[in-house]
Design a protein that fits this description.
By secondary structure, the protein is of the alpha/beta class. It contains eleven helices and eight strands. It has a single domain (5-250), classed as Alpha-Beta Barrel (TIM Barrel), CATH 3.20.20.
Length: 251
């Protein structure tokens, strides 16, 4: 049985005051949720603050990125050991914004995935196609390439301790959302792709959907058999909205 996961990607947002307010709104409510795991991924500068505010709640802490090396002369980068030492349990790898804006290739994403696991972090591998790719019927070719680039590097066994998030690029921050049927189609194909390597790992692998998920559409999305929660962007910055999405995943 796969436990749903709802992860909040705060991106480059927040102040110490807004983070404190948001965590205050979440911390007292998430323990009342059953059958769902909750994760927040703040900007690096707020990780320590969030770790302290999480306290004894069930909320998990994650980061938005990491570097491929464990340490050294890499000014401005953050390593896996640093994140683990700061209390992180998860880390996003391969988010579409990093692929598109920072030029991360499939090879770099695969190396980051491996680095995360090497240092005890659970990678959340982000996959997704652009609008042009969807309109040219290349969705599964793109998703397969991105997924298999990691599988070929670390092996399918690595996905025993990993999460995959499907985020169509055309639905991130645009207000557009893949229909539940569109999202399910890709999730089912992803699970089938993994099953070619290991039926057991495929069956247990948590597949999240991300892309303008809101309280209003979360329940319908999460009702699909191969959607195991969501990677939430803007809506995760509002405690009430994020909690409503978590509730949708727990029901």
């Amino acid at each position: 049985m796969r436990t749903p996961l709802v992860a909040g990607n705060w991106k480059m947002n927040g102040t110490r005051a807004s983070v404190a307010e948001l965590m205050q709104g979440l911390a007292g409510e998430t323990d009342g949720l059953t059958g769902v795991e909750t994760l927040v991924c703040p900007s690096f500068v707020f990780i320590q603050q969030v770790q302290e505010l999480i306290g004894k709640t069930s909320i998990k802490l994650g980061a938005q990125d990491l570097y491929v090396e464990a340490g050294g002369a890499f000014t401005g980068e953050i390593s896996g050991p640093m994140l683990a030492d700061a209390g992180c349990q998860y880390v996003l790898v391969g988010h579409s914004e990093r692929r598109a804006l920072m030029g991360e290739t499939d090879e770099i994403v695969a190396r980051k995935f491996a680095a995360a696991q090497e240092h005890g972090l659970v990678p959340v591998l982000c996959l997704g196609e652009t609008l042009d790719e969807r309109q040219s019927d290349a969705t599964m070719a793109v998703i397969s390439r991105q997924f298999l680039a990691v599988v070929e590097t670390v092996g399918i066994e690595a996905f025993r301790n990993a999460v995959v998030a499907y985020e169509p690029v055309w639905a991130i921050g645009t207000g557009e959302t893949a229909s539940p049927e569109q999202a399910q189609e890709v999730h089912a194909a992803l699970r089938a792709l993994a099953a070619k390597r290991s039926a057991k790992i495929a069956a247990d692998l948590r597949l999240l959907y991300g892309g303008s998920v809101k309280a209003a559409n979360a329940r319908e999305l999460f009702s699909m058999p191969d959607i195991d929660g969501g990677l939430i962007g803007g809506a995760s910055l509002q405690a009430e909205e994020f909690l409503a999405i978590c509730q949708a995943a727990s029901s």
